[in-house]
Write a structure and sequence with these properties.
Helix content: 25-40%
Strand order of the largest sheet: 2-1-3-4-6
Distance between the termini: 45 Å
Strand content: 5-15%
Shape: globular
Radius of gyration: 18 Å
């Protein structure tokens, strides 16, 4: 099989699953003097809307076809984030002081289309968002680093069209070390991705509110288990990172197995690629129910 073909399949699987320094704003400066929770990650945490990332679903289509979520305030670096995201629920519902750097498309080990882990952590250091009063740091990277995780830094460089691409593990190690030094009292937790596929490996990217699709499982479109196997390898890499750096690992995948893409709408946390059954900001990310559900899990089990 040609390398290009392998990367194409990996990219499809992963889809189912620079640095600008600014002076601290008043809000950022306040975080130096009080306990805060800092989030680093990609679009699962930032949960941008279709319109914010210029997705085809927002191109003149009615919200009756594709739910159009509400845009929120950007990250401290200007990355698009939805109004409804895990960080905002942790703040509004549970009272945490959250500084959310998550950014769609972000990688740990390579140059991202937006701010990667190194960029995010550097900005947090420069503005004082990471400090001695930081109580918790949540880290979630890997989906956009799939080629590097599966095939090494060389594959990451090819897939990223960049000779600057770092090994996923090297970048995660370096950045977690920086976080430790800047926030010595913080509990650092690498959070796995939520369950995309079922325990049997099923993946259901088309979901509606019609008939058994709403009340039973969707149609499995992952016969070869490509998505399931990729999902396991990404979460496995995150587990290794946590153990290597002696920080916490939270297996969000295991505790959300009953909320995967094939679960009934009453339980489902993950939106389909084509989704008309449940409100969501963007396909193959959290449903609105999923945002609230994951925030509740993290509040009760991690924070």
């Amino acid at each position: 099989m040609r390398l290009k073909s392998v990367f194409k399949k990996v990219a499809v699987a992963a889809a189912t699953m620079s640095t600008l320094f600014a002076m601290p704003t008043v809000a950022q400066a306040d975080n130096v003097n009080k306990e805060n929770v800092v989030i680093f990650g990609d679009s699962l945490f930032s949960n941008p809307t279709y319109a914010q990332v210029n997705s085809p679903q927002s191109w003149g289509l009615s919200s009756e076809i594709f739910h159009q979520g509400k845009a929120g305030a950007p990250s401290p670096q200007g990355c698009p984030q939805g109004d409804l995201k895990v960080g905002s629920v942790l703040k509004r519902t549970y009272g945490h002081n959250v500084v959310d750097y998550s950014c769609s498309g972000a990688r740990a080990g390579g140059v991202s289309i937006r701010n990667n882990f190194t960029s995010q952590s550097t900005h947090a250091l420069r503005t004082g968002a990471l400090n001695k009063n930081t109580s918790h740091v949540l880290v979630q990277f890997g989906a956009n680093d799939t080629p590097g995780i599966l095939f090494g830094a060389g594959a990451e460089a090819i897939s990223n069209s960049s000779l600057q691409a770092k090994d996923y593990y090297q970048s995660m190690n370096e950045n977690i070390s920086r976080v430790k030094r800047a926030a010595p009292n913080a509990k650092i937790t690498v959070v796995s991705y939520p369950a995309i596929t079922s325990s049997s490996g099923s993946f259901c990217p088309v979901r509606t509110d019609v008939g058994m699709d709403a009340f039973g499982t969707g149609v499995d479109m992952n016969i070869t288990s490509t998505v399931h196997n990729t999902e396991k390898k990404i979460n496995g890499a995150m587990y290794k990172v946590a153990k290597r750096n002696n920080v916490n690992y939270f297996d969000l995948s295991s505790v959300t197995k009953g909320n995967n893409s094939c679960s009934p709408n009453s339980q489902r946390f993950i939106a389909g690629l084509f989704e008309t059954g449940m409100a969501n900001n963007i396909s193959l990310h959290y449903t609105d129910k999923g945002v609230h559900g994951v925030a509740n899990i993290l509040n009760n089990s991690v924070l």
